[in-house]
Amino acid sequence: MRRRTFLGGAVAALTVQAIPWRRLHAAQAMPAVSRSGEAILLPAGDIEALRAQLRGALYLASDTGYEAARRIWNGAFDRHPALIAHCAGAADVTRAVAFADAHDLLVSVRGGGHSISGQSVCEGGLMISLAGMRGIRIDPQARIARVEPGVLLGEFDREAQAFGLVTPAGTVSHTGVAGLTLGGGFGRLARKFGLSCDNLLSADVVTAGARLVRASATENPDLYWALRGGGGNFGVVTSFEFRLHPSPPILLGGPLIFPFAEARDVLRGYADYVQSAGDDLYADAILTTLPDGQRVIVLDTCYGGSIAAGEKAFAPLRKLGRPMRDGIAPTPYVVLQASADQTLARGRRYYVKAGFIRDIDAGLRDSVIGQFPSLPPTAIVNFADAGGAIGRVPPTATAFWHREARWNVVCSTVWDDRADDEENIAAGRRSYAAVEPWARGFYVNDANLAEQSQAVVDRNYGGNLARLAQVKAQYDPRNLFHLNANVVPAAGIEPATP
Ligand SMILES: Cc1cc2nc3c(=O)[nH]c(=O)nc-3n(C[C@H](O)[C@H](O)[C@H](O)COP(=O)(O)OP(=O)(O)OC[C@H]3O[C@@H](n4cnc5c(N)ncnc54)[C@H](O)[C@@H]3O)c2cc1C
User: Are 379 and 411 in contact (CB under 8 A)?
Assistant: First the structure.
């Protein structure tokens, strides 16, 4: 295939969805966007050749399936890729990557589609969608799971829990395993079993050169290191192999809801208590507004050990104030994992900005609680619990640098009507401004990348940046995979050879 770059302005003016491609003559070409954002033309013959190569589907704007395939969780991103490769397996992924490389085409990679900052859908480029790759294989004897990259957390949890096993994952069941794991993976059992990426044993990866390689402790170990916290920078993962842990199907957990008037005392008592709690105890502290308009503070809990031990461990939290509702009860783990699914439903509009903190001191409490009543009822501030096993891994052992973080404070606003964008984005920014002076870095998976400079992203990788840049230069020297918390390839490094 020949690379064709068209530098004129006329093509840029055409929008992808405006043209019924099926009716174009084979000699014609389709406008698209290059890796570096220039207008290019894709020959119709090349597009048809790619379509013929795929076991899965290739969607153009006029194809049935295109609309559903381009949608991601955050409805605020309404982008139109020129092409969507709906991949059926690793071979499709290699063909899609080879096509993008040959045409110097902008690429986004979609696993579960939960990118908060919209990185998994691109405007005018090639969206490599893994949404159709949903296989899961549990080996109960070896306690190993093989998971394809379109799998959602709830699907993985259900499959593993049928055997009394679990890999720690995030707290909303419709999130994708792929993006979550590559950036880290915090959740209800992470204090006990570590981040999701800490439980990754190996991965199959299609690199920028369209080579399928395996990354593990013994094969391409630098790539294996970089995949665990370096996000989608290094290629497209087509299969994940995870360690599984025994974990009972019923755990003690659920929400403990206090009136907002008690928020200061509850947050202080909560922070003091959980700082020294055992690894089984997990509790987020969430400032939110109930559907009836009441502001509240919610402790969203889960205990990873026995029910009896959990009752003992949660007793001090129950006494922090006068709960309006005590929803802590023995509950199937998969139900706890889905408990926030409706609140954070797909397709709504979201603004999110978040940062890691080490302590909830009096200044931070005053700042956040003092400001919260002035935010619209669409605002949520979540002090997401971390620490425990996460913090016992050295920061250079994997690419995930922020091991010292004790909480991830996620400030968000959620709404439905485009007309309310301005108000909600401004409120989200105000909400995070109350936390920012205490923040020490951010989580790549909920980074608001539109508002971060490359220098800030670089700094956020801390002492791992230089090694990440070297691995990037080996596996993606031209930065094909740059729609992410980008690692810029180091200069002067030889690309990895087959
Ligand atoms: C409602 C909600 C709840 C969340 N809760 C948690 C939580 O509890 N804990 C937590 O740690 N995080 C949480 N997150 C953040 C989550 O980890 C990220 O949004 C993550 O990117 C989701 O992965 P995905 O595959 O669904 O996303 P996608 O949008 O599909 O992908 C996001 C990015 O990941 C990369 N990527 C995805 N798949 C691949 C692949 N196969 N190979 C290479 N790169 C790939 C790409 O760069 C892509 O742009 C939450 C997000 C949301 C929206």
Answer: yes
Question: Do residues 191 and 386 make contact, with C-beta atoms less than 8 angstroms apart?
Answer: yes
**178 CA from centroid of ligand 1 (Å):** 6
For atom 34 of ligand 1, the residue with the nearest CA is: 179
Backbone Cα Rg of the chain: 23
Domain that holds residue 373: 250-451
Domain membership of residue 108 (yes or no) is yes
Pocket of ligand 1 (CB under 6 A): 72-73, 108-116, 119-120, 130, 149, 170-172, 175-176, 178-180, 182-187, 231-232, 236-237, 344, 445-446, 483-484
Instruction: Return the CATH number at 57.
Output: 3.30.43.10
- For the CA of 185, the nearest atom of ligand 1: 11
Query: What's 176's DSSP letter?
Result: B
Ligand 1 centroid, distance to 151 Cα (angstroms)? 11
Same domain, 259 and 347: yes
Q: Indicate left, alpha or beta for 130 from its phi (over 0: left) and psi (-120 to 50: alpha).
A: alpha
CA 112 to centroid of ligand 1, rounded, Å: 7
Shared domain for 118 and 180, answered yes or no, is no
CA of 231 to the centre of ligand 1 (A): 9
Instruction: Give, using CA atoms, the residue closest to atom 1 of ligand 1.
Output: 344
- How many independent structural domains does the chain possess? 3
Q: What is the pLDDT of residues 459-496, one digit of tens each?
A: 999 999 999 999 999 999 999 999 999 999 999 777 77
Residue with tokens 């425990």: 388
Q: How many CB atoms lie within 10 A of CB 454?
A: 11
Q: Do 260 and 233 share a domain, yes or no?
A: no
Residue-wise pLDDT tens digits, 83-102: 999 999 999 999 999 999 99
Its pTM surpasses 0.90: yes
Residue 113 sits in the same domain as residue 101: yes
Burial of 186 from C-beta contacts in 10 A (0-12 / 13-18 / 19+)? buried
